[in-house]
Write a structure and sequence with these properties.
Elements (H helix, E strand, L loop, with lengths): L17 H11 L10 H5 L13 E2 L2 H6 L6 H9 L8 E3 L4 H14 L2 E5 L18 E5 L6 E5 L4 E5 L4 H9 L3 E2 L12 H7 L6 H4 L2 H4 E8 L2 E5 L12 H4 L8 E8 L1 E2 L3 E9 L2 H13 L6 E5 L1 H11 L2 H13 L7 E9 L1 H17 L3 E2 L3 H9 L5 H9 L1 E11 L3 H14 L9 E6 L2 E2 L2 E11 L14 H21 L19 H19 L20
Parallel strand pairs: 2-4, 3-4
Antiparallel strand pairs: 1-2, 5-6, 6-10, 7-11, 8-9, 8-10, 12-14, 12-15, 13-14, 13-17, 16-19, 17-19, 18-19
Helix pairs in contact: 1-12, 4-18, 11-14, 17-18
Bound molecules: flavin-adenine dinucleotide (FAD).
């Protein structure tokens, strides 16, 4: 079953290796495991529902808790402290587009707000209920999970938009096709969620971003139904798919989506290369991108991330052996690991591998074969479970991301990391910070940064357990603000893949401008005249008064 207050399936755990615990103690100090609120403690805090009864609406407290928050660090702090400020008043689980339309008209009649909910894996507050007088109905779309049509000739498939990643891939692979969209949240995120947040899969280099996969679909909105035919291409004015991509539930509910698929590749491999330093690694990756090599993934870690990854891996002897071997090749403490994915026909994989490894060699890279690549592949969807174990050991973890031009990568990365390093100096706390570049383009790249700090124990405002939820949240706010300001000032986008939600909303205007924001607001109003769809996310616009 899905865990109610953390990541993933609650029957699976990814324990922290001993080497990792020692590494963290050294890096930011020993921590105290917090006591989390239990589900029954949280259930006791759920208020009565404000929604009138409806056959499709469930007002059970457990379901309302399960849909109260997403997966951001503030969400975790709320859930694990048992101090969840707001809940949906009910949850609906429609199985058809017709039921979705009934829910929209019910929401209109009772003046409720609607929050579409896919996997709830948002890390920026997309699915959270904001305080307000109107009742809130969360619409969980995961029953709309079937493959509705597959055109094997044209390589397009239509799914119910609530299909989870593994279910979508299983239905395609049964016919020897794949979508190729593998965000790290793959296990518990949905096709509809990917589209409306502009999500990015780990192998977007080979398969493309979700924008390139989304061919058309069906949106049920308060103003009516929008059907987008899946043409291969069209010059019929502005592309309305672009309107849905990134719409974050503000325009309506995507019930069906047609996606561009491809046959499962004959060959795929993941390899590791170590560089003497980050600048040389970056130059090699840039060169591979600008040569348009047929690769499916490039993930280059900074020295700090490389060190952390090796410490977290837990195989101490093998890692010591590797470090010794790299030293012999003049790769020391500034070493940076690149994981290289190559996917395609036997011939294209051979070509991509040879060309990429040659480019890496030119920049001092040492190829270490497939062991680290296979380890990465094995853990690609398991590593988020480490976040549960880190929390349980007393460490809070958050990630943030941006994208910028190649010429600006080093400066921006340094500015973000410095902002985070300095963030908790006022309380004398160290912050562990590390980054990687994982979605690369010929003209630039994303920067993905992870940071950890100790969960403050026994603070004056300690809640259910022996940890101080308010102070944990305050520290997150300080760090998030410092990093976001560094991103905006340093010429990066506020988000390359996580979207806006509530957490990035204050930083959207430098990117869109006043006219752009007003146009987005107008668009929301066209689809949703009374502002019932996921208000307070993406763009701020007060609901119009009902006539
Ligand atoms: C551990 C972890 C790893 C992650 N890794 C990645 C990654 O590699 N790449 C990446 O891009 N993101 C990643 N994310 C972020 C998140 O998974 C993505 O934003 C994802 O696209 C959200 O999908 P979801 O189905 O969970 O949507 P939700 O979280 O349920 O919803 C997100 C937004 O979409 C809206 N929505 C959902 N479904 C619909 C629908 N059918 N119609 C209309 N609106 C809808 C919601 O109202 C909300 O505004 C990660 C998150 C976690 C927790």
């Amino acid at each position: 079953m899905k865990r109610w207050n953390g990541w993933g399936d609650d029957t699976f755990t990814y324990p922290l290796p001993q080497s990792a615990a020692a590494f963290l103690q050294e890096a930011i100090g020993p921590a105290t495991p917090p006591r989390d609120a239990t589900l029954s403690e949280a259930v006791d805090t759920v208020p009565a529902s404000r929604l009138p009864a409806h056959a499709l609406v469930d007002t059970d407290a457990t379901g309302r808790i399960a849909h109260a928050r997403g997966q951001s660090l503030p969400d975790w702090i709320a859930l694990r402290s048992g101090r969840i400020p707001t809940f949906p008043d009910g949850v609906a689980y429609p199985a058809t587009g017709e039921q979705v339309r009934k829910l929209l008209s019910y929401a209109g009649q009772v003046d409720a707000r609607l929050i579409p909910y896919g996997g709830g894996s948002s890390v920026v507050g997309h699915v959270n209920v904001l305080p307000g007088d109107a009742p809130v109905l969360t619409v969980d779309l995961t029953r709309m999970n079937r493959l509705l049509a597959l055109d094997e000739v044209s390589h397009v498939a239509t799914f119910g938009a609530g299909v989870y990643g593994p279910d979508l891939e299983a239905q395609l692979r049964a016919r020897n096709f794949t979508l190729g969209h593998f965000p790290q949240s793959f296990e518990f995120s949905t096709l509809g969620g990917w589209i409306v947040t502009r999500s990015n899969g780990q192998q977007s280099l080979g398969y493309g971003r979700i924008e390139a996969m989304f061919a058309g679909g069906r949106l049920e909105s308060p103003a009516g139904t929008l059907v987008l035919p899946p043409f291969p291409a069209s010059a019929a004015g502005p592309d309305l798919r672009e309107v849905l991509l990134g719409s974050e539930g503000r325009l309506g509910i995507l019930t069906e989506a047609t996606v561009r698929i491809r046959p499962v590749a004959a060959c795929e491999e993941f390899r590791a290369v170590f560089f003497p330093d980050f600048e040389r690694g970056q130059a090699a990756v840039r060169e591979m991108m600008q040569a348009r090599l047929p690769l499916s993934m490039l993930r280059l870690s900074t020295p700090a991330e490389t060190e952390t990854t090796l410490a977290m891996a837990g195989h101490e002897q093998a890692i010591a052996w590797l470090k010794g071997l790299l030293r012999l090749r003049r790769i020391g403490d500034q070493r940076c690991m690149l994981i290289l994915g190559i996917t395609g026909s036997d011939a294209s994989v051979l070509f991509g591998r040879d060309e990429a490894l040659a480019a890496a060699r030119e920049h001092g890279g040492v190829h270490t074969g497939q062991i680290f690549g296979n380890e990465w592949r094995k853990n690609r969807f398991r590593s988020p479970y480490l976040r549960n174990s880190l929390w349980e050991a007393g460490y809070a973890l958050d990630t943030l991301e941006t994208a910028t031009a190649w010429s600006n990568v080093s400066d921006l990365l340094q500015a973000i990391e410095q902002a985070l390093h300095r963030g908790l100096q006022d309380v004398g706390e160290r912050v562990l910070v590390f980054s990687h570049l994982s979605h690369t383009y010929p003209w630039g790249t994303n920067i993905y940064t992870t940071y950890l700090y100790r969960i403050p124990a026994n603070g004056p405002k300690a809640t259910f357990g022996q940890w101080d939820a308010a102070e944990t949240l305050r520290r997150w706010q300080v760090l998030k603000t410092a990093a976001s300001e560094a991103i905006v000032a340093g010429g990066g986008t506020i988000t390359h893949q996580h979207g806006i939600g509530t957490d990035h909303l204050p930083y959207l205007s430098p990117e869109k401008g006043a006219l752009g924001l007003a146009a987005l607001g107008d668009l929301c109003e066209r689809f949703d005249p009374y502002g019932i769809m996921n208000p307070g996310k993406l763009v701020l616009r007060d609901a119009r008064t009902r006539r």
